[in-house]
Design a protein that fits this description.
Leucine-rich Repeat Variant; mainly alpha; 13 helices; single chain
Length: 223
């Protein structure tokens, strides 16, 4: 009897306890994708969105935003974009806040992969240009970059990695455009700096588009 009960779906209350416990763990090698996709996104995503807005969950924010992305629920797109761009504090972000905001950019790539969300895809494709972040009037202060231009360049690097996770052909086109000759000196410097990241993202995009994220992580973890 106990064996049969263990196979039954988790109740909503059990799901809530389980997802909260999951994002409260420490993952040395990153949030495990194969475990996240076992959760029911319809139940887990609203819980995580509430947690993301709760100041008491600050320490867990990086895991929360990554898990939200991996769940692939469309409802997370707009809250994640608002989270990436806005901050009410005039002081430098805490390390957890900073890691969460930059990780949220990558998380949009997971949502594109699973849900095909066009808003998230367009956002990422636009985000590979550092000057776009100035236009969005991102004002939060990085604890690791004294110059906002360095912060913007790092956010664009995260967008490049996010496009790799999508497996989408449109994303690959945007990535390849970053390998073309630059039109300005600033753009040339940026493209030279992120060239290895672009190559990595293109390889990931092609592989994920061909075999899917589950197999991509399975093969990667078996090496």
């Amino acid at each position: 009897m106990a064996f049969v009960i263990a196979l039954l779906p988790l109740t909503a209350q059990a799901q809530e306890i389980s997802i909260k416990s999951f994002v409260g763990e420490v993952y040395i090698e990153g949030v495990p994708y194969e475990q996240v996709i076992r959760f029911d996104a319809r139940t887990a995503a609203p819980i995580l969105l509430e947690m993301m807005a709760d100041p008491a969950e600050e320490a867990n924010l990086p895991n929360i935003v990554v898990t939200l992305g991996m769940l692939g629920d469309d409802r997370a797109v707009e809250p994640l974009i608002r989270f990436i761009e806005t901050s009410s504090s005039r002081e430098a972000l805490s390390r957890a806040q900073y890691v969460a905001r930059t990780s949220a950019v990558i998380s949009l790539g997971y949502i594109v992969n699973k849900a095909g969300n066009k808003q998230a895809l367009e956002y990422l494709m636009q985000s590979v240009q550092p000057q776009v972040w100035r236009g969005r009037q991102v004002t939060w202060i990085s604890p690791f970059h004294s110059d906002p231009n360095d912060r913007n360049a790092y956010l664009s690097k995260m967008a490049i990695l996010g496009l790799g996770l999508t497996g989408a052909p449109e994303a690959a086109e945007t990535l390849r455009s970053l390998q073309m000759p630059a039109s300005t000196e600033d753009d040339r410097v940026f493209r030279d700096k992120v060239a290895p990241v672009v190559e990595e993202a293109l390889r990931a995009n092609e592989t994920i588009g061909r075999i899917g994220l589950v197999e991509y992580y399975r093969v990667g973890n078996s090496r």
